[in-house]
Amino acid sequence: AKGALWGARFADGPSTELAALSKSTQFDWQLYPYDIAGSKAHARALAAAGYLTAGEEERMRAALDELRARIDSGAFVALESDEDVHFALERGLVEIAGAELGGKLRAGRSRNDQIATLIRLYLIDHAATISHRVIQLIDAIAAQAEEAGEAAMPGRTHMQHAQPVLLAHHLLAHAWPLVRSLERIRDWRVRASASPYGGGALAGNGFGLDVALVARELGLDRPSENSLDATASRDVVAEFAFITAQLGIDLSRFAEDIIIWATKEFGFIRLHDAYSTGSSIMPQKKNPDIAELARGKAGRLIGNLTGLLATLKGLPLAYNRDLQEDKEPIFDSVTQLEVLLPAFTGMVTTLQFDTARMAELAPAGFSLATDVADWLVRDGVPFREAHEISGALVRFCEANGLELDEPSDEQYASVSARLRGEVRSALTVEGSLAARSSPGGTAPQRVAEQLAQLTHRVRDL
Ligand code: ARG
């Protein structure tokens, strides 16, 4: 059969090979609610411009509602011969409303301005779902931070013991990137809320349609400024793909901590049975699969972004069929994230921390050496010299199998005349934590303030 939307100038219908290549209903079908919403808005604009009578608009809307109901119930489905969702839905509309009325809807619009609008509507909806789920994860992290109270743990740089920090401080360090991703979604939404509808194939429509009315009907803020740009650009899609990739990275970094913490060697956490998996051969295994899937899916989300960017690079104005390739990657990123986030949140909510073990390891690896140097500075020693004295003390302790607070007064003096027994008072984890009281620092008071700040920032979003 010849293509119903564009067959007239062709003597023959598309080859089966072309049809197989061209068909997109297997993935763009999920845009049908947005396609129907777009059609209703367009019908309103056609009526306002005098191209549909009030009665026709009424019947058109009823037919579109009927079409929606038939699709929802599975009574109307895509055929092999339907090139895309727009093509199929026009076929459905004509079936219900008749060719006379159904055939009027396409005036002044094209699949090019349609698809550019529908993908925005789809993403705005799913952005709301994703934001909601990210907020639930932030809440779960905040609840764990609150529960952790003043529990200490080893803070690391280069994976080596560095300085003690509060467990709550470390947990909240995984919440802030998520807050920024939420703020990114909020900012993106402003750019996404321009409506390409009425831009036609590329040049605009010739019927004086009220495109601002269409935008309003669709819940968008305003019509796009340039019809060529509106139908041909997909930076709004690429930016959302970046946001999902960054969220994947946010989760993946937290996941890596969880994977390491769950090892026998660390023994910092226990995963809940309902949020971990076993081995088919090793009966003792309890695996952090959710965290590993988060780490793995981050790669996939990054791939979807880079694939999409490669598709867009060098495309000339205006619409090109290459643009159909934007859908599968962005749909995949959205779907993956929507499945991952609830599982990840469940895992975080049910994590159990071995705070005794974490506290025991907090001062290990000479992680209070900076506090020795800081004590010397407060005693009037320039930091450069204090650093050397503290380093010499670490070397002395390592060679003699002692912790930093274990040498005798004579042994301290043998390392440096500036070192006195009083330094021991500075060598507690509590003292070290309390001393780091700069804004955003790990002192318990500061971490409590940070937690309150986080709650505020998320509430304001
Ligand atoms: N299925 C197409 C897409 O996803 C819709 C626009 C098709 N336009 C066209 N002139 N072939 O981009």
Automatic annotation (TrEMBL):
PROSITE patterns: FUMARATE_LYASES. Residues 19-303 form the Fumarate lyase N-terminal domain. It comes from the Bacteria. The keyword Chloroplast does not apply. It catalyses: 2-(N(omega)-L-arginino)succinate = fumarate + L-arginine. InterPro entries: Arg_succ_lyase_C, Argininosuccinate_lyase, Fumarase/histidase_N, Fumarate_lyase_CS, Fumarate_lyase_fam, Fumarate_lyase_N, L-Aspartase-like. This is Argininosuccinate lyase. The gene is argH.
